[in-house]
Specification:
Elements (H helix, E strand, L loop, with lengths): L5 H18 L5 H11 L9 H28 L11 H21 L7 H23 L4 H18 L5 H21 L5 H21 L1
């Protein structure tokens, strides 16, 4: 008879949760989201190839390259302990760098009127990063769920605006947010209140920025 081994089950669940937590890392989530929307044509943008290459270069540099290099250097010089950013101390400087990069990206593409949605998304991401920075000073919130709430909020606005293919994107975003919340709880990185506050903050900020930025 096979014996039930809860320790082995817990290890498997912990590994799966770690994979989900890193794949849906708050610094990678905007990259996945923007790539999905603009890379697949869900939000068509009619610009020349030269402008498109410029936009891609700006987004790659400001959204991925600079934040990744900054966090790697912070970890190398032991400014932060690990890449998960689980402690309040590890959150502050990376959030400042990310907010600066997102704001710079939004400013650099603001000269193209047809990219107003992308500009609003960048400023919404910047506002969410500043929210996490402020939260790391005053209290503790879940950065992962803040990013997830922001993606859900942005997708909801696009769905409300009448973009036809946003229904399944919204469903996937909600599903990913649920998976991420469960993974962070399984890893004991956040409490339900920290996750709820982070998700609500990211959701509300992204909606406000998408409507009024």
């Amino acid at each position: 008879m096979l014996e039930y081994r809860p320790v082995k089950y817990d290890r498997v669940l912990s590994r799966i949760s770690s994979v989900v937590s890193y794949v849906l890392h708050p610094f990678l989530m905007p990259v996945w989201f923007m790539s999905l929307l603009f890379g697949t044509g869900l939000l068509p943008v009619y610009v020349s190839s030269q402008v498109r290459n410029y936009i891609l270069a700006v987004m790659f540099t400001d959204m991925l390259l600079v934040p990744a290099l900054a966090i790697m250097l912070m970890h190398l010089f032991r400014v932060i302990r690990d890449y998960s950013l689980s402690s309040r101390k590890d959150t502050m400087l990376p959030m400042f760098v990310v907010a600066l990069c997102y704001g710079l990206c939004g400013w650099m593409i603001s000269s193209f009127p047809m990219l107003f949605l992308l500009r609003r998304m960048m400023f919404a991401s910047m506002a969410c990063a500043l929210f996490c920075l402020l939260g790391s000073i005053l209290w503790r919130i879940s950065i992962h769920l803040t990013a997830a709430g922001a993606v859900v909020g942005m997708t909801l606005i696009l769905l409300y605006a009448g973009y036809p293919n946003m229904v399944w994107v919204f469903c996937v975003a909600v599903l990913c947010a649920g998976m991420l919340g469960s993974a962070r709880l399984c890893l004991r990185k956040n409490t339900p209140s920290e996750e709820g506050l982070g998700f609500a903050g990211g959701f509300a900020i992204s909606i406000l920025m998408m409507l009024f930025a």
